[in-house]
Amino acid sequence: MVVIYRTPPDVAAFDTHYFDVHLPLAHQLPGLRRYEVSKRPIATPAGDAEPYLVAILYFDNLDALRQAFATPEGRACAADRRVLAPRDEDVQMYLFESAEV
Amino acid sequence: MVVIYRTPPDVAAFDTHYFDVHLPLAHQLPGLRRYEVSKRPIATPAGDAEPYLVAILYFDNLDALRQAFATPEGRACAADRRVLAPRDEDVQMYLFESAEV
Fold this sequence. Notes:
- 2 copies of one chain form a homodimer.
- By secondary structure, chain A is an alpha+beta fold.
- The first copy, chain A, is 37% helix and 25% strand.
- In chain A, strands 2-3-1-4 form a 4-stranded antiparallel β-sheet, with no helix packed on it.
- In chain A, helix 1 runs antiparallel to helix 3 (72-84).
C-alpha cells in the first residue's frame, strides 16, 4: 500500500500526530511486514505537487492487507488517517500487489 | 521513486509499450537495485481515481537516482515516459529517500 499525504496546513502538528499516534497504530496492523516512510524532500518532476509524506506498507498480498484493515486495529488506523487527512483530496491511497520485473 | 500512471486511453497499447519498450530502458538505469510493477486491480479507497500502473524503482539513495536520470539511459527513460504519459497530469512521480519505521 502506498499512501501519499499532501502538505497539511500545520506540518508540525501533522508530524507529531503521524509519528506519535499514527505510526504506533499502524504497527499494530496484523500481517504488516515492513513500513517505510519518506524523508524530505520529495521531488516531483511531473504531476502532483505538494506531497508531504509517502508511506509504503508491505503485506504478503492484497488479501492480507484487506484482512488487516478489517480488524479493530485496521479500523483504528483508518479512522486516525482521517484525522491526518480529513478530506479525501488530502491523501491518495493505492492498494495493490506488485511483482519484481 | 514511485511512478503512478493514470488509466491511458488505449490500455493495450500502453501495456505493449510499457513492457516491451519502457521496461528494458528502465533496466539500463545505472544503479537501479530493484524494479517493481503493480498488478491489477489497484484499489483506491480515497483520493485519486483511475490509477492504472504503479512502478517502484529502488536506488541506494536520492543522489544515485538523480545521477541515473542524468545519464543517456536516464534521459532515454524520461523521454520514453513522455510517450507513455504525454501530459504531466497523466503521471505522478515521487522521488524520495525512505526509512523503515
